[in-house]
Amino acid sequence: LYSPQCTFLTPIEKVHENPWFCVFNRGGHFTVENNQLQVLILPIVENNSVVMVRVRRPAIADNTLELPAGGVKMNESPAEAAQREFSEETGITIHGPNRFHLQAPLVLTSRDPCLAHIFQIDLTQKEFDGRSKHDDEILSVECFSFKEALKKIEKNELYFGFYIAVLTRFLLQSHQIMFAADIEKKEKANAQRFKY
């Protein structure tokens, strides 16, 4: 899923190219494809908050809240790219890419046939608090409780659809897991109560 799935759409003609992406006409269907594989990182702190970066985006005249993300360099695995991008954008150094857990992909846009690699990393508060300098393109690194993050979505302070999708999917899955754990705990308590 991380490379074009539409190779059967022919002929293929490159319509535009720049350092970041290309536009292809694939048998009459136009696609916008990044020149590098993309990674996105969902940093979760102590299973109660999320780390986001505030990025200067002149094209939309805003400083937006985003999840750390970037491109995979030559001879770099997606997990290694996630580790590098995360460190560059947040100042949080993680030793080894094995803490970055690949998540199920999401479609960013129907015009992009290459899906981003989405990784989750679980952090301690100490790791977040101990961060160092981040990239100049990043204005700030911020940590929000899940409730605060949802409020930012509600108030349109976080409005990039892809980041909203990644975060809300995590929150929905986490809630279901916690809900299932609560049911199991209540069932055990009831079983103990009726034992006597």
What would your notes on this structure say?
The protein is of the alpha+beta class. Helix content is 32%, strand content 31%. The longest helix has 35 residues. The model has no long low-confidence stretch (mean pLDDT 90).
Q: What descriptive keywords fit this protein?
A:
single chain; 196 residues; alpha+beta; three-stranded antiparallel β-sheet; 4 helices; 10 strands; 32% helix
Brief write-up:
The chain is α+β, with helices and mostly antiparallel strands. The chain is 32% helix and 31% strand.
DSSP summary, beta strand count: 10
Work out the radius of gyration: 20 Å
How far apart lie the N and C ends? Answer: 55 Å
Largest sheet: 7 strands, mixed
Beta percentage is 25-35%
The geometry reads as globular
**Tally of helical runs:** 4
The H-and-E topology, N to C, reads as: EEEEEEEHEEHEHH
What is the residue-averaged pLDDT? Answer: 90
Low-confidence stretches: none
Helical percentage: 25-40%
Structural class: alpha+beta
List the helices and strands and how they pair.
Layout: E1 12-17, E2 21-26, E3 29-34, E4 38-45, E5 49-57, E6 62-66, E7 69-71, H1 78-90, E8 101-102, E9 117-123, H2 125-129, E10 138-145, H3 146-154, H4 161-195
Parallel strand pairs: 4-9
Antiparallel strand pairs: 1-2, 2-3, 4-5, 4-7, 5-6, 5-10, 8-9
